[in-house]
Amino acid sequence: MPEFVLPPPAIASVAVTGSAERFAVRRIFCVGRNYAAHARELGNDERDPPFFFTKPADAVVDSGAEIPYPPLTSNLHHEIELVVAVGKAGFRVPREDALAHVWGYGVGVDLTRRDLQDQAKKAARPWDWSKAFDQSAPCGALVPAAKTGHPDKGRIWLAVNGAVKQDGDLAELIWPIADIVSICSEAVELRPGDLIFTGTPAGVGAVQAGDRITGGVDGIGEIAVTIGQPRP
Asked: Structure pTM?
């Protein structure tokens, strides 16, 4: 066994519905602007091909957590998303084979420091600081695809303090799941443990310390997190 200079970090993981086992997370890929209405609300062309950004594996947070309001922002946004959990490695996966690489599905929230993202866009700089911060990828328990099938329609929604803010349908995805998996695998080799956040419908908006975020995807599950006070 190798010896390490420092103790290895804990393995990032996501709960699995109905099981004490957990899904170890390797990497997190996120699809930008994958619902036409959301692309339009951000002033973009919904016909653009999909693009990806990443979050660190340890950005995942279980449903039920309290997430401190992050530093460097005064405009923290919610983005509800269907999450794809990869269970089989693949590079340059043909679209017709893509769903065979999916282990299961979950419900996630892509938390975004929107003011930092806007600044980065204007300066033509990377989005990392706006997307890839601590606890920025809350994810509900995963459900195996063997139980759910591969969803191509169904309500996806998010509420803040009980008021619905995002309300869409998976049928509105510009690039459906098989396309997303296939296109992502053109750039990187997907491996077991990878998560793909598949994009958010219209209605994104700001949350404040003390707000409770709830959301779900029909047939997949739900998520609930609270935004806490900033860390001292």
From this structure: 0.94
